[in-house]
Amino acid sequence: MSDFHETRRRFIGSSDAPVLWGKGYASQSLYSLWRSKVFGDRWQPTAEEQRRLDVGNAMEPIIRDWASAELGVMIEKPTVPFDSRYMGAHLDGCHYDEHREFVVDEFKHIGGWQQRSQWFDADGDAVPDGYWIQVQHQLHVSGAEYGLLWGMYGDELLVRKIDRDEEFLRRHVEQCKAFWGYVERREPPPVDGSQATTDAIVRAFPRPAKVEPVTLPADADEWTADIKKLDEQIKRLESTRDELKNKLRAAIGDHEAGRTLSGQTWTWKLQQRKSYTVAASESRVLKLVKGKS
């Protein structure tokens, strides 16, 4: 394990901070973060997330130089993290403003129009939630009063000033303290139903090592009963859904699409399946078209 990843196990970093508030990547959860701190499990981003990370890392020095030119000051990249007992941060950059006030700089590469739209709202400039939490975390551990979030989109460089939010930081410190308690006790936090948690559990226990059954917690009977009830509800709902879809199929008949009185369009098109290891086939797929026609 590299020194960087070993260092990150010592504290909650600024890139970890959004996970505590449910604003991290889709492949991250509280449970997967806990395992990374306790057991050193490496984060397993999706292919799309990894591509964004790789591009962001490659573009970081370019954004830093561009931001330095915009400010007219040299933005430095600290070689060591700001570190406290259980909170820390590796800063992308920092500088001193005209009042000799310390400022943190965070650099992001904006990969597409959808990502760029998160930087604007009805009132104008906006900050994506996860990035705002990340910078707030950096402000706390560094003691800075404000930070600058830089976003590069093509030949456009966006910048957002983020001031300290003391009320949020109070709650954030409590959140970090509670999570770190699980780490120190080596006690897993409550699991959720996210795919990230499922993947983390499967990676942690890829195959059984013991034949004899383990005694489950007392709550396991309640979990089992709830699962049975949910399975029955899902079965009934799926049956009702399938009945409604069959009504739509019958109403569409030999047409390719049908439109409701409110303007919603259902399509029932022919879909072909190419021949690879199985025989080629084709079938029709019923689909609700997003939006109104």
Outline:
The chain is α+β, with helices and mostly antiparallel strands. Helices cover 43% and strands 21% of the residues. Helix 3 (30-38) crosses helix 7 (166-185) and helix 3 runs parallel beside helix 8.
Spell out the blueprint of helices and strands.
Blueprint (H helix, E strand, L loop, with lengths): L2 H6 L8 H4 L9 H9 L8 H25 L10 E2 L4 E2 L3 E4 L5 E8 L3 H5 L2 E2 L2 E2 L3 H14 L3 E8 L2 E8 L2 H20 L9 H10 L15 H33 L4 E3 L4 E10 L7 E12 L1
Parallel strand pairs: 4-7
Antiparallel strand pairs: 1-2, 3-4, 5-6, 7-8, 9-10, 10-11
Explain this structure to me?
By secondary structure, the chain is α+β, with helices and mostly antiparallel strands. The chain has nine helices and eleven strands. A four-stranded mixed beta sheet has the order 3-4-7-8. The chain has a three-stranded antiparallel beta sheet with strand order 9-10-11, covered by helices on one side. A hairpin with a 7-residue loop joins strand 10 and strand 11 (281-292). Helix 3 (30-38) crosses helix 7. The longest helix is centred in the C-terminal third of the chain and has 33 residues, at 220-252. The chain is globular and about 75 Å long.
